[in-house]
């Protein structure tokens, strides 16, 4: 009997016309469980020996991005962070918050952010990303200790 996660992975892959393979299922499972954007290195660490090389991870992530199943949420320290695209629209990704003290990244799903309007003539916006930085509640609480 298949788990709900396994069924969801199967439906997602089928919905974008991608074959089910071990690496695809493993990478989607990691992104589903993470609940936040991950770098390719973080994905590799969570997979362990399940996928032997980083080229497979890179190619799989690129195929997911091309199929709009996953997207590149933002770049930090010269590394892209990937996440499932199910909580974003085609033109706007939900905001992300990075704590400058502990480095924890949080998805701020449901935080209303207006689409930028009135851009200077000649510019065409394809996608809007909002990356916020500051201190997370945990680090703010530690400040007084």
List keywords for this structure.
145 residues, alpha+beta, Arc Repressor Mutant, subunit A, Dna Ligase, domain 1, 2 domains, 3-stranded antiparallel β-sheet, 37% helix, 18% strand, globular
Provide an overview of this structure.
The chain has two domains: 1-86, Arc Repressor Mutant, subunit A (Orthogonal Bundle), CATH 1.10.10.10; 88-145, Dna Ligase, domain 1, CATH 3.30.1490. The chain starts with a helix and ends with a helix. The chain is built from five helices and six strands. The mean pLDDT is 86. Strand 2 and strand 3 (79-84) form a beta hairpin. The chain has helices at 4-15, 22-34, 40-47, 54-66, 137-143, and strands at 38-39, 70-76, 79-84, 96-99, 105-107, 131-134. It is globular. The longest helix is centred in the N-terminal third of the chain and has 13 residues, at 22-34. It is 37% helix and 18% strand. The strands form two sheets. The chain has a three-stranded antiparallel β-sheet. The protein has a three-stranded mixed β-sheet with strand order 5-4-6, with no helix packed on it. The chain has 145 residues and is of the alpha+beta class.
């Amino acid at each position: 009997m298949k788990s709900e996660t396994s069924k969801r992975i199967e439906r997602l892959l089928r919905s974008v016309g991608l074959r089910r393979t071990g690496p695809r299922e493993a990478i989607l499972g990691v992104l589903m469980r993470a609940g936040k954007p991950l770098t390719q290195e973080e994905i590799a660490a969570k997979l362990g020996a399940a996928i032997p090389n980083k080229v497979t991870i890179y190619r799989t992530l690129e195929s997911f991005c091309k199929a709009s199943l996953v997207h590149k949420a933002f770049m930090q320290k010269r590394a892209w962070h990937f996440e499932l695209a199910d909580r974003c629209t085609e033109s706007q990704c939900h905001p992300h918050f990075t704590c400058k003290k502990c480095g924890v990244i949080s998805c701020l799903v449901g935080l209303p952010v207006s689409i930028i309007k009135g851009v200077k003539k000649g510019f065409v916006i394809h996608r809007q990303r909002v990356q916020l930085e500051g201190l997370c509640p945990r680090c703010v609480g530690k400040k007084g200790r």
